[in-house]
């Protein structure tokens, strides 16, 4: 009779913490559990309790934001902290009645059955917090712009339909004058840019004839004050982001000689952080790799990506691991002879690559833009956007890990390669059917 194999215990002192908002349940290798509070003194007591028992590795689930304080305490104390997916620690049927979640998780961790998730290092988490806070302010600022447009609509003032941006220099000057009780359309037009006065004078004056109701003017003033407040908040975040970047990048080096050619950085967007020398800081932080040479990669998008994944991408062995973690590659599921795909949820970094991919949809001379349009014609825009985002992510991983240089081949060369592939496919199919493919007379005359 063949003996039943026994699953070996890899770490008899493996700990697991069931994280909650008010209590922390802790177990070591599936033993009796202990309960701790979530205040700072209790977290320190939990740390000391684990240290006294010789625990080196602690696993826990990423529950909301409640795990972050404990993670910082354990990380600072030198523990190996393993963050796991809650789906990987689900109890077996019937196990819930006689074993706590922390005991079951500790048992799995002791046998080496839990897989660690990705948690950025401390300095990346600092940058991430500032960037996400800035994104929240940016979203609120966009809402205040919508409130300004709604209020102008209530007064039947159509300025935002004539000029390109209500929060631009011309739009804000006109709105400030309106709030200062200026009603003359000619005087309001004089506050606009010269090009607007030259090309849109009649339309602007017509759009500024509205009904000036007191309650709507009050709402407009508050919306403008909200927008200005969030602009100041974003500027404060920019200063903090700059401080983190300069602290990590180290002291500034001697500037290059005047004759040295430095490639010009891409033009920043309207919502990009106002940080002096941002391009140089990012290049230095990425090991002297200029990732803005990749299509759709700007300093702002690169800063956001680094805030999510960091600069050490060797944690993902291959580019396929990286795209799978981003949620840009479908998962596979096989049960017997049945095979299927599992839809993965895209995380923040994966959604960033999708946003970057959409910017290439209307490009005229970039090969990846032609790839997007070709895929969109076959599979639709959503599938094409994810496929293009995956290609961008693969190039990002190659440059960061392998140091590969990206060379833009151009749209014409890409389309020529597509035609050559179609020609070879057609010849292969014709050969299988016993036919011969000959060029047309017009093609022979061109050649």
Portion of residues in helices? 40-55%
The shape, in one word, is flat
The DSSP helix count reads: 18
- How far is the first residue's CA from the last residue's CA? 77 Å
* Whole-angstrom Rg: 29 Å
> How would you state the average pLDDT, rounded?
86
Strand order of the largest sheet: 3-2-1-4-5
Name the beta content range: 5-15%
The biggest sheet amounts to: 5 strands, mixed
Number of strands: 7
Low-confidence regions: 256-262
Give the helix/strand class.
alpha/beta
Class of the largest domain, according to the CATH hierarchy? Mainly Alpha
What number of domains?
A: 4
Order of helices and strands: EEEHEHEHHHHHHHHHHHEEHHHHH
- CATH architecture identity of the largest domain: Orthogonal Bundle
Set out the fold topology:
Elements: E1 15-19, E2 23-28, E3 34-37, H1 40-52, E4 57-61, H2 67-76, E5 80-84, H3 101-110, H4 122-154, H5 159-162, H6 169-179, H7 185-190, H8 194-199, H9 201-207, H10 214-249, H11 278-285, H12 299-309, H13 319-326, E6 331-335, E7 338-342, H14 348-358, H15 367-379, H16 381-402, H17 411-432, H18 441-446
Parallel strand pairs: 1-4, 4-5
Antiparallel strand pairs: 1-2, 2-3, 6-7
């Amino acid at each position: 009779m063949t003996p039943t194999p026994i699953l070996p215990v890899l770490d008899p002192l493996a700990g697991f913490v069931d994280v909650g908002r008010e209590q922390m349940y802790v177990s070591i290798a599936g033993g009796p559990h202990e309960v701790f509070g979530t205040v700072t003194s209790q977290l320190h007591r939990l740390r000391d309790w684990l240290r006294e028992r010789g625990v080196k590795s602690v696993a826990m689930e990423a529950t909301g934001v409640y795990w972050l304080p404990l993670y910082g305490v354990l990380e600072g104390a030198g523990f190996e902290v393993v963050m796991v997916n809650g789906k990987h620690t689900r109890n077996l049927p019937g196990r819930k009645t006689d074993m706590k979640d922390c005991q079951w998780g500790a048992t799995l961790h002791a046998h080496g059955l839990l897989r660690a998730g990705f948690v950025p290092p401390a300095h990346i988490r600092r940058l991430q917090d500032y960037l996400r806070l800035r994104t929240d302010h940016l979203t609120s600022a966009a809402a205040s712009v919508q409130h300004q447009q709604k209020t102008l609509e209530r007064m039947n003032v159509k300025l935002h339909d004539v000029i390109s941006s209500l929060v631009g220099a011309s739009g804000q000057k006109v709105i400030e004058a309106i709030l200062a009780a200026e009603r003359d359309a000619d005087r309001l037009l004089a506050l606009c840019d010269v090009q607007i006065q030259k090309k849109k004078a009649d339309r602007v004056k017509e759009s500024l004839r509205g009904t000036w109701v007191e309650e709507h003017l009050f709402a407009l003033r508050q919306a403008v004050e909200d927008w200005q407040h969030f602009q100041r908040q974003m500027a404060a975040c920019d200063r903090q982001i700059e401080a983190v970047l300069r602290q990590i990048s180290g002291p500034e080096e001697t500037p290059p000689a005047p004759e040295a050619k430095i490639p010009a950085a891409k033009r920043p967007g309207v919502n990009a952080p106002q940080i002096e020398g941002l391009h140089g800081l990012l290049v230095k932080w990425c090991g002297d790799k200029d990732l803005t040479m990749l299509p759709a990669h700007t300093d702002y998008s690169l800063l956001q990506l680094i805030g999510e994944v960091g600069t050490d991408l060797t944690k993902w062995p291959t580019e396929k691991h990286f795209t799978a973690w981003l949620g840009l590659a479908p998962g596979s599921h096989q049960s017997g002879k049945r095979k299927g795909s599992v839809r993965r949820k895209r995380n923040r970094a994966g959604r960033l690559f999708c946003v970057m991919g959409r910017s290439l949809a209307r490009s005229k001379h970039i090969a990846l833009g032609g790839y997007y349009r070709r895929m969109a014609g076959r599979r639709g825009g959503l599938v094409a956007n994810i496929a293009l985002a995956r290609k961008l992510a693969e190039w990002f991983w190659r440059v960061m890990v392998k140091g590969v240089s990206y060379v833009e081949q151009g749209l014409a060369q890409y389309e020529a390669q597509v035609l050559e592939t179609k020609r070879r496919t057609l010849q292969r199919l014709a050969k299988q059917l016993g036919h011969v493919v000959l060029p047309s007379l017009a093609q022979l005359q061109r050649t």
